[in-house]
Structure formats: structure tokens, C-alpha cells
Amino acid sequence: STYARSGRLPQQQWSTRFSFILAAAGASVGLGNIWKFPYVAGENGGGAFILVYLACIALLGVPMLMAEVLIGRRGQQNPVNSMATLAREAGASPAWKNVGRLGVMTGFLLLSFYVVVAGWALAYMPLTATGAFTGVEPPRIGQMFEQHLQQPLALIGWSTLVLVLTLGIVGRGVRQGLEKAANWLMPLLFLFLLILAVYAGSIGHFGAAVEFMFRPDFDKLSASGVLIALGHAFFTLSIGGGAMMIYGSYLSPQVSIARTSILVAVLDTAAALLAGLAIFPIVFAYGLEPGNGPGLIFVTLPIAFGQMPMGTVFGTLFFLMLSVAALTSAFSLIEPAIAWLTEKRGMSRFKASVLGGSGIWVLSLGTVFSFNIGADWTLAGKTFFEALDYLISGWMLPLGGLLMALFTAWVMKPEVTALELGGDSAGYRLWLGLIRFLVPAIIMLIFLQAIGLISL
Ligand code: PFF
Ligand code: NA
């Protein structure tokens, strides 16, 4: 047909639809679900926040995820080349390829702090396994986390290990690396999550947790809480970071983008809710604070692990699961850069991995030092880590997502997007309506609010 697409070789594609779903779920289920979601939900009062978050996933997240996968699947290359190809196809400005560049950059920067937090998870595995928290007084456990952050060399060691593991998998390529790892790790991850949620529910205060998570009390939700729910919906689904675009580029043309994207969003949401059900029953049973911030799983949970029956096993399993979730997301954060270096610069996958990995490693030092020797190198009151997280989660991911949404909605020909989404149906028109109007309107509102032009 007029709109036929050029394709990747079969060995550069996911071998089955299910492999794509697992890999994309791997990209999406990560620190965002298990570390970030429980503490932001805790800080923002629980139920009402979670309700808004779920609405954001359904109304904005799913259509945006579809848009990003669609660009990749149609473009069949790394994000930069895919955007360039599709802009040419639509007769639009070649400058659209900068959206691909932004995606590659965002993933790269995000990975530089992601490996550090993932390193904490890895470090807490042997710590829990050797009984370091057993019978220890709560204040002392808080100090242990502080002390952990005070040792730059140890932090560097752990984040280097995360990076080496990531590159070891990603360097093997799509089928031997990304796909194989996701096929093994993702079912395991969901199994762990389920076991932990059931165990936590049986020894902890399951009822209190359910009430906290699912009984909306809108008095507890502020305007900024709504914005945080929205930003987190993008972060958790990996929207705007080029990850879903590159994974979409390895997807065969026969697979339904709508059905797989919805399934990935459902899996991501299930993982976040299960994480909540694994964490909050313990938090309430031991009289801990759900609103304790980023330390929630590294301070409050080890307190509980140190007191509860089988806490050593349960805790080790928990940090293993967190590490697995972080790793499968880390793959997706570096893959756009690797694909760009190999396809555009003609590098071998090995060379690209070494080069990309070295860049991330150097950048990650900024995050490491922001917890110790560089704690007072601040910008507008934010440490390097805080500034980077704010820049990426608050600006780069939503901006990338917005530009991708605008591109599929207004620049690509509807014939083309309809073809990629399986034809002009009621579902297609719903997607087009959401991506054309609701998605850009809401994201612009967030930006206006963030720069202080409006106040919601
Ligand atoms: N979705 C991941 C998480 O929830 O931890 C984070 C992430 C991965 C964001 C990949 C963006 C991205 F491109
Ligand atoms: Na996620």
C-alpha cells in the first residue's frame, strides 16, 4: 500500500506478542511502582490520590503510551531516526527528530540516578539477609540508611554493579538479552509481589491498608497532589523517555498496539497496587508513618523486617524483587541510546554499551555525591539528585510525552495512525480525540501551573 513501512530484520524483533508485553511491562514496572508509588501515595493521603492517579493512567497514560509505541513501530528505528522518517513521511519539518533526541537524552539522564537508587536496593539485600536489622531499635535503622548514604565509595560500587548487570544484558541484543531477561524475570517479579502482598496481609493490618489505599478522602488531596499524581502516571508508564518508542520499534506489524498497551498499563497498575498491599499492612501493623518520604522502604520497612516473624526471608525477597524491577527498567532506559549509537553511528553493540555505560557512570557520580560530599552543592535549594529528578520527572518526561502526542495527533496523517492502530473504529476515534485535545490540554495546564502562571 501507499503507507507500507520498512521493517527491521526478524532477529531484531520480539519473537512473540507476549515477549513484547513482558519486556514493556519490565520497562514500566520499576522503582516507580515499588519505591516511589507507596511513598508519594503515603505523602498525599492515600485513597483520593490513588483514585486520581488511576484516572490519569486510564485517560492520559494509555493513549500516550499507544502514541509512543506507535511512533516506534511505524519508524522501525532508534527514536531519532524514527522521528525523522515519520516527519518526512508526513511532509513535516525534519526538526521533529529533536523529539527523538530529547527522548534518548531523558532516558540517559534518568538512568544516571536510577542506577544509584537501584544500588541501594541491591545493597539492602545482603544487609537484610545477614540479619542486620533483626532486633535493632527503630532510630538505629534510620541511622543505618543515613550511614549508607554517607559512603560514596560503597554507593559507587553498588551503582556500578547495577550498570554492569544492565549492560551485560542489553549488550546481548534484543532477543538474547532484553527478551530472554524479561521472559525470566517478569513472571518471577509478579510471583514475588503476590507472595509478599499475601504474607504482609496475613501478618499485618490488611484492613487498614485497604482502607488507606481505597477509601478516597478528598480533603487530604491538595492541588499539588493532583499534579504529582499526574506526573507519576507518566513516570510509572515510562512515557516520554524514548523507552517505549524503542521497544515499539522491535514490535511486529501484526500485533495490536491498543491491546498490548492497555495490558502493559494494567500490569503496571497491578504492580503498584500489589506493592502498596505488601507495604502498607506492615506500616500500619508496626505503627509506622506512611508519609515518611523516599526513606519509606529503606527505613520503615527494615524496622518491620527486624521485628516480624520470618523478617529476614521476607525482607531479602523484598529487596531482591525491587532490584529485579529496577533492572528491567534500566534496560529500557539505555536501549534508546544504544540503538542510536549502533544505527546512526555504525558502532557495534558492545562498543555502544561500553561508551553509553561510561557516560552514565560519570553522570551517576553527581547523584552519589549529592548524598554526602556534595550535599551542599545546591541549585535553587535542590541537591544535584533532587534537581535532576525534578528536571526529568517534572519537565523532560511530560514535555517529551506532549511532543509525541502532538506529533501523532496533528502531524502524522490519520490514515497512517489508523492503519497502525488497526483501522478506523470507535476505539480509534476515542484515542484520536483524547490524544488531540485532552492530553495536550492537561499537560499544558501542568506546565502553566509549574511556572506559576496559573494556580490550580
Ligand atoms: N517506568 C519506570 C518506573 O516506574 O520505575 C521508570 C521509567 C523507565 C521512566 C523508562 C521512563 C522510562 F523511559
Ligand atoms: Na512503573
UniProtKB/TrEMBL annotation:
GO molecular function terms listed in the Swiss-Prot or TrEMBL record: symporter activity
Topology term for the membrane: Multi-pass membrane protein
UniProt xrefs under NCBIfam families: Na_transp (NF037979)
Keyword entries, A-Z: Membrane, Symport, Transmembrane, Transmembrane helix, Transport
Similarity comment: Belongs to the sodium:neurotransmitter symporter (SNF) (TC 2.A.22) family.
Any one Gene Ontology cellular component term annotated for this protein: membrane
Primary location: membrane
Entry's localization field: Membrane
Name by which UniProt lists this protein: Transporter
Residues that span the membrane, as ranges: 18-35, 47-67, 102-123, 153-172, 184-206, 226-250, 262-288, 308-334, 354-375, 395-412, 433-454
InterPro entries linked: Na/ntran_symport, SNS_sf, YocR/YhdH-like
PANTHER family: TRANSPORTER (PTHR42948)
Pfam families tied to this protein: SNF
